[in-house]
Amino acid sequence: KKIDVTISDLEITPQRAMLKGQTGSFDDVEQMVVAYGADRCISEVTKPTLRQKADGKGVEFQLSMRLECKK
């Protein structure tokens, strides 16, 4: 399923990545978590921030993940 995502902040270090943004629903965020988690170089995907937007149209999120390629 294709989803629309707007990324407002992205930080990448050799060990971690963090992204903030907004999308249409909580299910869209879960779809991203599953997709990132399926990548062999990404683990420990967490959602430190996840809330409905104040206007009720969409979801604001923050995802954090560990970057480490498994062999």
Rounded to the nearest angstrom, the distance between the terminal CA atoms is 28 Å
Strand arrangement across the biggest beta sheet: 1-2-4-3
* Whole-number mean pLDDT: 94
Largest sheet: 4 strands, antiparallel
In terms of per-residue confidence, which ranges show pLDDT below 50 for 5 or more consecutive residues? none
Give helix % range: 10-25%
Given the helix and strand composition, which structural class is it?
A: alpha+beta
Q: Mind telling me the C-alpha Rg?
A: 12 Å
Strand percentage, roughly? over 45%
What is the approximate shape?
Answer: globular
User: Helix and strand string, N-terminal first?
Assistant: EEHEE
Total strands: the figure is: 4
Tally of contiguous helical segments: 1
Question: Can you tag this structure with a few keywords?
Answer:
4 strands, 71 residues, four-stranded antiparallel sheet, 1 helix, single chain, alpha+beta, globular
